[in-house]
Write a structure and sequence with these properties.
alpha+beta
Length: 243
Amino acid sequence: MSKQSLIIILSLVAMISTTSPVFGSGGENLENANINFRDTAAVQRGAKWFVNYCFSCHSASYMRYNRLAEDLGIDKDVVLRDLAFADVRIGDTMDIAMRPKDSEAWLGKTPPDLSVISRSRGNDWLFAYMKSFYQDESGGWNNLMLPNASMPHVLWQLQGIQQPVWSTHDERAVIEHLELASPGLQSPQEYEQTVRDLVTFLDYLGEPSKVKRKNVGIWVMLFLVLFTLVAYALKVEYWRDVH
């Protein structure tokens, strides 16, 4: 086998094993969210957290309830009962009742649709964001990842209230870290798992066909490797008489 053919085969094998994300940017020096998009149970739990805590303000208009039921293995009646809080049909998209004009008047800006937020922000960023809310000196909510964010900490009852610990760096006061001043309903470990499940669901929203796509991709790559071997063997046979 020639060196060139060996390089082609090794490149195809490397493509099979790669798991690097194509979309989104997780930023630098962020903790790995460590999600498993193949974990259907985690996606189901994340859907519960999303509907209970996010869905009143944030829509997911690229997702339909019947697709959610099919992908997550949930009965359609259960989806309409537990994950839809309005008079909707199973084929409807996950839209909210609040109108953009009203949300802008009440909240200062229209909350973004979260259908593809994992692809635009990155899973690691979302994981850090939901863990980085703290109560500032005004008594309101702020966030290390997105300072002066207009979004309140909707999960504060689960996490509790964090407050900043300040230090001086280059004669400037900076937040060194956050500490839990008032515990929530969940332990820090439980809250971290809740956030991980929520991010897993948001990752699923961003590309519902990811599992099927990656499974098909593996077989396509294996076929290409096999085809390369057959093509090379055919080339050797054709050129045998010429040489």
